[in-house]
Design goal:
Largest sheet of chain B: 4 strands, mixed
CATH class of the largest domain in chain B: Alpha Beta
Structural class of chain A: alpha/beta
Number of helices of chain B: 7
Number of helices of chain A: 21
Low-confidence stretches of chain A: 98-113
CATH architecture of the largest domain in chain B: 3-Layer(aba) Sandwich
CATH class of the largest domain in chain A: Alpha Beta
CATH architecture of the largest domain in chain A: 3-Layer(aba) Sandwich
Number of domains of chain B: 2
Largest sheet of chain A: 5 strands, mixed
Radius of gyration of chain A: 25 Å
CATH topology of the largest domain in chain B: Glutaredoxin
Strand order of the largest sheet of chain A: 7-8-6-5-9
CATH superfamily of the largest domain in chain A: NADH-ubiquinone oxidoreductase 51kDa subunit
Oligomer: heterodimer
Distance between the termini of chain B: 48 Å
Number of strands of chain A: 14
Chain lengths: 543, 172
């Protein structure tokens, strides 16, 4: 086996590629050869490394020095300094994410400040996602080995229950309990489905996991299959994620060749195979029963529940549906134990959460932090503060169906329970940070327009409710609404919440209700004064 | 077996024996898969670019499923189109992050530059403008997807560069 003394990784997310990552890679290849280092240095393109402020990035291990943005013309210098002479080329280093010591509340929380802690993204951007060997070196498939070799299915479920892991798709249902339901249903055939239809606007955490560490999902699905008694799994990947699909197909082939998937895994008699199903562009298919319909080859119309998929799912068989991030948490829980997992996060929501940060902040990107961090901390520490000259007005969590968080709730710890006590929801982990130039009426109009387009039309509360809400928001934005319309909006949101068939309709009214709760004065200004305080809406004053 | 009830228009892909052979290959490769309808339609959309009504009937007959199911799938999912698109598509992300980041201004610019509205194709059949749902690249908002490549942080003034990227691709 060849030993390498240094490993060079080049980021290859779309933004990096656009900024010349491919040329940097080729340049690195030729420079490394020119210095005669090709036997000592391994060069890899890795996926999205979760930082987009200085792309394309080059990371050199074992020192873990991050360079960026690197241009092709810098490469000669970089290779000569770092790889040939062995010193850090300081002037090319990427800016360090600094913890600002100036902020008063930060010092108050000294010592308890949750630092970024990577669990589900621990390999993303570090290993070559197309190499199963690298995955195995980084403890890959060892959790599956432990499970198949040493544990009974019920023991695995107990471990997951004990860890307190809750679904990361948005609803926060206890994962162990769900596994227990499926395991407890008697059936010849059961399925495990991985929900990778990440279509909540603003969420791209699952893409990073699938592109950067596809084997972890395969391993977790096999563990889940063993625990609940399933021998077949489906990964429903949204159609837009072509790179993720490619990497998954590749990973499945590799895992089958090596015997981690297929017949008689590890000689234990356990069989498990995984199929990939590509979505075709429908938001509703993120809902688990719609997703099941879609895998069956039908339009994604959600089913009525009960019966739940845990008893009557894919082709009428008991089916376990879990989100990508939820599954990615399983192997580390098995490996390090539920007690370790409990040390992360808050007692009611243990573990870490991946957040995607976007909007009017200095640094957008993805972070993984223990549950219970506050919004203020996220903005100040990880997002590098608001953009110069702007101040925080509101955040929208969890994509379109999430809540609108006003500045007054900035210090609420972000975990499932603390947020639900405050009357808001955490959702899928998208954090859209908006400054004071954002008009809440315009934002609400865009959000409800999204639901209006994506409503499947099966049940009337959602079909008609989203349309009517949109019409009212439109009239507010034009300055033609009446004050009574606001009450109509609240009534619509309430009735959609109570009687809609699925999660889409139930949450469609949430952003508007939050806007009316926290920003009513601004909405009323559109109606009473025919003025948009932020100047976003073009109001034509009625004659 | 249901007979084709509508007359096949002259310009339909079904009149081209090569395309029919392609369709048959795709159907035969996937027909025994569970949930074959969507797999077949996905591949047809990728291969041919659109799925006309006669094609839907053809697929339904071959797969022994009701035409209503095939049509239901085609009309439900936004990936499937029944009309041909231009050679290239430019999609504007309408996710919340991109919207707040300035997609509306970008669309205005595109209309000015290309002279067509969203959902339309330029008269020379080169470029189709579309809006799309979140593509999961929100940290780079606003995002424009040209064919399969994602362009991030596109300001209205940078839009002509995006179009130029299509033209250079053609010249290669």
């Amino acid at each position: 086996m060849k030993t390498v003394r240094a490993m060079v990784l080049v980021s290859s997310d779309p933004q990096s590629l656009l900024n010349g990552a491919e040329q940097v890679y080729q340049q690195l290849q030729s420079e490394i050869a020119a210095f005669g280092l090709e036997d000592e240095v391994s060069l890899k393109m890795v996926g999205d490394i979760g930082r987009h402020d200085a792309v394309p990035m080059v990371i050199i291990y074992p020192e873990a020095v991050i360079y960026g943005p690197v241009k092709p013309e810098d490469v000669h210098h970089l290779v000569e300094e770092h790889l040939y002479k062995g010193r850090v080329a300081a002037e090319l280093q990427a800016p360090v994410r600094e913890l600002s010591g100036r902020i008063a509340w930060l010092s108050a929380r000294k010592g308890t400040l949750p630092a970024e802690k990577r669990v589900v993204l621990r390999r993303a951007g570090i290993i070559d996602p197309t190499s199963i060997e690298e995955y195995i070196i980084h403890d890959g498939y060892s959790a599956l080995g432990t499970v198949l070799g040493e544990m009974q299915p019920s023991q695995v479920i107990d471990v997951v229950k004990k860890s307190g892991l809750r679904g990361r798709g948005g609803a926060g249902f206890p994962t162990g309990t769900k596994w227990g339901f499926v395991a407890g249903t008697k059936s010849e055939k059961k399925y495990v489905v991985c929900n990778a239809d990440e279509s909540e606007p603003g969420t791209f955490k699952d893409r990073l996991i699938l592109e950067g560490d596809p084997h972890s999902i395969l391993e977790a699905m096999a563990i889940a299959g063993y625990s609940v008694g399933a021998d077949e799994g489906f990964i429903y990947v949204r159609g837009e994620y072509t790179l993720a699909q490619e990497r998954l197909h590749h990973a499945i082939t590799q895992a089958e060749e090596m015997g981690f998937l297929g017949e008689n895994i590890f000689g234990t008699g356990f069989n498990f195979k995984i199929h990939i199903h590509s979505g075709a562009g429908a938001y509703i298919c993120g809902e688990e029963t719609a997703l099941i319909e879609s895998i069956e080859g039908k339009p994604g119309l959600p089913r009525s529940r009960p019966p739940f998929p845990t008893t009557h799912g894919l082709w009428g068989k008991p089916t376990l549906v879990n989100n990508v991030e939820t599954l990615a948490n399983v192997p580390p829980i098995i490996q390090y134990g539920p007690e370790w997992y409990g040390t992360l996060g808050t007692p009611s929501s243990p573990g870490t959460k991946v957040y995607t940060i976007m909007g009017h902040v200095n640094k957008t990107g993805v972070i993984e932090v223990p549950m219970g961090i506050t919004l203020r901390e996220v903005i100040a520490i990880y997002a590098g503060g608001m953009k110069p000259g702007s101040s925080f007005k509101l955040a929208q969590t969890g994509g379109s169906s999430g809540s609108v968080i006003p500045a007054s709730l900035q210090d609420t710890p972000m975990d499932f329970d603390a947020y639900s006590r405050a009357g808001v929801s955490l959702g899928s982990g998208a954090l859209l940070i908006c400054d004071e130039d954002t008009c809440v009426v315009d934002l609400g109009r865009v959000l409800i327009n999204f639901f209006r387009n994506e409503s499947c039309g099966k049940c009337s509360p959602c079909r008609i409710g989203t349309q009517r809400s949109y019409e009212i928001m439109e009239s507010i934005a034009n300055g033609n609404a009446k004050l009574e319309d606001l009450q109509t909006l609240i009534n619509l949101a309430d009735s959609m919440n109570e009687v809609s068939n699925c999660g889409l309709g139930q949450t469609a009214g949430t952003p508007i209700r939050d806007i009316l709760k926290y920003f009513r004065a601004e909405v009323e200004a559109h109606i009473r004064l025919h003025v948009c305080p932020t100047g976003v809406c073009e109001i034509k004053i009625p004659v | 077996m249901v007979k084709n009830t509508t007359k096949i228009p002259e310009n339909d892909p079904l009149n081209n024996p090569e395309i029919v052979a392609d369709i048959d290959t795709i159907i035969n490769a996937n027909r025994y898969l569970p949930g074959a309808t969507m797999v077949v339609l996905n591949e047809l959309q990728n291969k041919i670019g659109y799925i006309t009504e006669p094609m839907q009937q053809y697929v339904a007959n071959k797969l022994h499923v009701p035409v209503s199911q095939v049509h239901g799938v085609v009309s439900f999912y936004s990936f499937f189109t029944t009309k041909p698109r231009g050679k290239h598509t430019i999609k504007f992300c309408m996710g919340t992050a991109c919207y707040v980041g300035g997609t509306p201004q970008l669309i205005e610019k595109a209309k000015q530059v290309l002279g067509v509205d969203v959902g339309e194709t330029t008269p020379d059949g080169e470029i189709t403008l579309e809006v799309c749902r979140c593509v999961g690249a929100c940290s780079q908002a606003p995002v424009v997807v040209v064919d399969d490549s994602v362009h991030g942080r596109v300001r209205p003034n940078k839009f002509p560069q995006v179009i130029r990227s299509i033209q250079t691709k053609q010249n290669q």
